[in-house]
Amino acid sequence: MRLILLGAPGAGKGTIAEIIRARLNIPTISTGNILREAILNRTKLGRVAKPYIDAGKLVPDNVIIELIKNRLSEADCKNGFILDGVPRTAAQAAALDEIGLNIDAVLMVEASDEVIERRLSGRRVCKCCGATYHLKNKPPRKENQCDSCGGALVRRADDTPEIIRDRLKVYHDKTKPLIEYYSNKDILLTVDGQKNIEETKDHVFSVLGIMERL
Ligand code: AP5
Fold it and tell me: What digits encode the pLDDT tens for the residues 189-204?
C-alpha cells in the first residue's frame, strides 16, 4: 500500500503512521524525522534545514524533493510506504507525480486548531529514538523515560506557542490546498483526528478497509 498522510501539525499524522506501519509492515517516511536526525548529526542537510525548522517555516522544495526521491529509491519501499509530512506544497506534490508513484490513498487527518494546540503543548519525544508520547494521552510507563529505548523525553524545539502558531499558518497557506488537489484525483479519504488514539486506530483501519484481526 502506498499512502500519504496529510494534515496540520499535531493532527496525529505520526501517531497514525505508526499504527499503520505496525499493522502492514511497510516503512514510514517522515521528512520531519529525517530532517531532525540530520540536525542532530550535524550533516549538511541538517545545517540547511535547521533555521527553517526552528522558525516553523518550510524547508525549500528542492531540498525536500531530492531527499524524498533518494529515500523512495531504497529497497524497503518496494512493497509500499507511508509518507508522513510530505508533500506539503504544490511543487512537492507535482514532483511525486512525476516519479509516477501511483499513490493508493491520501489520508487527510482532521483536527481543530484548539485540539492541535493541546496536543503539541503536551507532546514529548525521545531524545534518542524519536518515539512520540503525550503527557496525558499517551504517557510513558516511567516518567520522562522512553518505553522503547530508555532515552530521555524532551519537548520539541518547535512546539512552543509562537512557533505552533507560525506552523499552523504555513499549513493553512501552503499545504491545505493539496486537499483539493488529491480530491480531484479521487484518492482522498478523510480521517477524524479528534478521537482518542484507540478509536482512531479502529477508524483508520475501517477507512482503509483493513481488518484488524485476520
Ligand atoms: P514534522 O515533523 O512533519 O511536523 P508537523 O507536520 O508539524 O507534524 P507533527 O510531527 O508536529 O505532528 P503529527 O501530525 O505527526 O502529530 P503526532 O502524531 O506527533 O515537520 C517539522 C518541520 O520540518 C516543519 O515545520 C518543516 O520546517 C520541516 N518539514 C518537514 N517536512 C517538510 C516538507 N515536506 N517540506 C518542507 N519542510 C518540511 O501527535 C501530536 C501529539 O498528540 C503527540 O503527543 C501524540 O501522542 C498526541 N496524539 C496523536 N494522536 C492523538 C489522538 N488521536 N488522541 C490523543 N492524542 C493524540
Answer: 999 999 999 999 999 9
Q: Distance between CA 6 and CA 154 in Å, rounded?
A: 25
Q: Is the dihedral of CA 116, 206, 6, 139 positive or negative?
A: positive
**What is the pLDDT, as a whole number, of residue 67?**
97
- Amino acid symbol at 165: R
In sequence order, the 6+-apart residues with CB closer than 8 A to the CB of 36 are 53, 130
Angstrom distance (rounded) from CA 4 to CA 2:
7
What's the pLDDT score for residue 213? Answer: 45
Cα 100 to the center of its chain, rounded Å: 21
Neighbours of 24 (CB within 10 A): 16
Strands ordered across the beta sheet of 28-30: 28-30, 81-84, 2-7, 105-110, 188-192
The answer to whether 68 touches 96, Cβ cutoff 8 Å, is: yes
Mutate to test the pocket of ligand 1, among 33, 36, 59, 178 (most ligand atoms within 8 A of CB): 59
Ligand 1 atom closest to the Cα of residue 87 is 34
